[in-house]
Amino acid sequence: MVPILTLAADGTDRVMLGGAYVVDDFALVFKGFFLLASYVTILMSMDYIADGDYKEAEFYFLMLISVVGMMVMSSSRELITIFVALETISIPTYLLAGWRKHDERSSEASVKYFLYGALSSAVMLYGMSFVYGLSGSTLLADISVWAGNGDIGVIGTLAILLTLVGFAFKISAVPFHFWAPDTYEGAPTPVTAFLSVSSKAGGFVGMIVLVYAAFAPDPAAWQTFMWVIAAASMTVGNVVALRQKNVVRMLAYSSIAQAGYMLVPFAVAPDGDTAVAFQATIVYILIYGIMNLGAFACVIAIARRTRSANIESFSGLFYTSPTLTVALTAFLFSLAGIPVLAGWYGKFVVFASVLDAGNTWAIVLGVVVAVNSVIAFFYYGNVCRVMWFHKPVDGDAHPIRVPAALRLGIALTMIGTLVVGAFPQLVAHVSDLAPFAPTFGG
Fold this sequence. Notes:
two-stranded antiparallel sheet, disordered C terminus, 442 residues, 17 helices
């Protein structure tokens, strides 16, 4: 059996369960990312959960169970293992989304997330069953041999698309995004941050492994699907975000648009050569995690005083909390891709994957990325305009007291955003530690 991935911490892969579970550099990179992102999320949650009417022990237990699912996902190289890992990620988050038990919006968020999640899991499992029936194996290495035969037929293509639908839901790609805005707004804000970064990244890892390790030999079966949902996610996410009056809901649509950017390398990967696209996706996920967690940490800190996530409640923030204003501005500008913050390099690697492909459809998608990057700046910039140039609401001139744990979370993400923006080769080097083998099935 041909190894799916190369390298590991000491140059040797750890293969277990007949190839279903592999510890290699790809797995180690994302295990580290999930641990760091979850640590920052816990820092963001400590005072928020302690101050509210929440069950603290159960909250952290469920969050850590979801993290275990993410860790397993990064090492999964077999369909059943991937499905179990995805459900381990998802089921605790269904409960966490409704953790504000006396809030109707939180309960609604949890129910919507659960119902749509269960439906998408059923569709995905149905597709996986077809993939298994056609390929005769659940191991991704064996499935890549089947996909490389060049004759998977209509049923094979449908099986691949149904399998990918479950992950498209998890990453909130259009048109499978309808749960995200209501769930993000209704869930406790630290849970929203967790869903938009760690949980989304877990879904992307599953999609990366499936596409590049199993389905890549037959890009005709999935690449058009990726192109369509990438363009739709960027456009719908950014355009609808322009109309939002709530910062959390705006960040929800921003997260949908960011998923579209991450899908671009999938959509333009040249036939038989996925190395550049693969590394571009990894880099963008890592950078997105840093800057989005920082943005949510700032929103949590501000909402402690305003008790609201409405954009107008951020008015005059510079006059009362200039440090917090500068931090949130940096994170929003990074999400917009402004140099010299980390986000610019994320956009750069996406454009590099487009140029590497060089075909007409890739260039068209590159134009869509460019146009949407300009659109995104308007709603990110609007929040910054309100903070910097509006007067404080009701004459409130009291500075915001940021708890130590939350302050540490903001500091860590700010350092990451600035360092990666100034020295992007650090993240580029991390992605080099996790290359996929360029050949499939032999």
